[in-house]
């Protein structure tokens, strides 16, 4: 790894490395030492070059306050090193030992009902607690100083999946730190009262020491500004907790790389200090686990969605945990990858930006809360097809690392993402509407099915490589973003701005100008005259969608009004039904109306518009996406924007992505079904996974087969 960090956060950044890290999380403390040599031999034969360890071993490393014992891990690292395998150490702060929580129960998280969390699980301690932060610094310092001169410890992971189990806390420590954070942010209590709307429901405070934490339904809803700042504080607190550790690690040995492995992605601002402190970010990927599987209906699409969202935060990444097998905890479980599927899922991670990957896990535990979270090696210590797939993948990545590393993932269609404030603003006041990300999924999946290069990107990023940018109703908006969108359009780009964009300020107040606000109205040439809710597509009533989107569940006997209030519109030669939301627009002179409402009182009023801006255009969409609208809008805009599939006539069940830079283009193609398939329009090149076999048009893939075609 290079010692140089990325100067900027960008979706286009590759990881600065000259080695593709491939291996597995390894837990030598879970097995008898007689296994260690055999494990290292098998890893080496599989082509692994790294393992990750110690993230849950604080109780071993420090069995009592101030007494450190590194012997177990010293010996495990030495065994691996003899076989050419390096080690990534982890700070073990996700699982503080019982002696610590017994001595300092005040460091435990407290839930919204006032219950202290308990020892016996993980992430039970409050990262806002000054006491816990001090102990976190102490174990980090002891570990880093011990391993300073060990050449086989090459890098560090901070903690483990921060905020995945429980990001919130309502402890005394959290309250005190929250009050201090607000005092630093606002300076005077009058400014806080203004930001939170203290004149509504008499929620004003006389001093920062009176501020409370926002308890859900206590007995009703808190101010959106209050909630927004609480989650901003949680993100600040998480970044500060990690910064404590990073600062120590870098001071002890600057050549170590430092990263974190994200799991649930909650209450972390990826475009702030949390990411800029790191050399790169890691994302744990379990395609057969995620809830979206039920909604999207295909685990390959779900994996692609997660990875594209993550890459939009700060660019390429590593995958510290890639699903290899069946996984479970007592309350849930995953599906099991079929033979060939583990390698294919790993290849998809690389295709979408992974510059390193570790299969979770090397072998399963025989005890604890994950006894059926299986690994590459089974409980009976027998290596089966998963071991062979891991070996094949590791061999391929090592051989191709010079081709893959240094490339970024192509995006023709960008979706505005990676903005913490907009993500949280929706949650504070969802009114049953899909989140920006839920709305964006429809466009992402449309592009995925057709082999169109699509991903997520922040408006502050470099937009020049895109052809189209879609903004999915970001209610918080900055005027400088408008200028960036304008510059993108002037150079030939297409911008699509979704309904409700720019309708709240940074305090979560509704703006006092006519929507979508002064700068966006000038850019788009429209003003919103009226708006309202609509039922979700296919819903029986207005409130059917609200359970998933964070609102109330409607009583079962409430009469549906969706038919009486149905809104239709015409776009091109189609008449479609709108879903979720509508806006009636007035349009400036010279702005083209490309869709009109076609029923009820709004018949003939503008629903979508297009304004020429320089060499490009800015489209305003006065509703939310539906599958039908996504298709109609894409058919109208993509051709003019020069957006084409990476492979024409892509067969169903095939995923295609391109990684590229100035001197090479790599087409990653995977068959995510168990049936063979044939592609007929692959650009000429050579398949790097098939001994450089020429490809010119036709390409055959077995079930779960993969190809990496370097284009001519």
Highlighted features:
712 residues, alpha/beta, nine-stranded mixed sheet, eight-stranded parallel sheet, 27 strands
Outline the structure in words.
- The protein is an alpha/beta fold.
- Helix content is 31%, strand content 21%.
- It contains 19 helices and 27 strands.
- A nine-stranded mixed sheet has the order 13-12-14-15-22-21-20-17-18. An eight-stranded parallel sheet has the order 6-5-4-3-2-1-10-7.
Could you tell me how far the N terminus lies from the C terminus, measured between alpha carbons in angstroms? 30 Å
Outline, from the CA principal axes? globular
What ranges have pLDDT less than 50 throughout 5 or more consecutive residues? Answer: 545-563
Q: Give the radius of gyration.
A: 26 Å
Percent of residues in helices comes to: 25-40%
Number of helices: 19
Mean pLDDT metric:
94
Strand order of the largest sheet: 13-12-14-15-22-21-20-17-18
Which band does the percent of strand residues land in?
Answer: 15-25%
Helix/strand class: alpha/beta
What is the number of E strands?
27
The largest β sheet comes out as:
9 strands, mixed
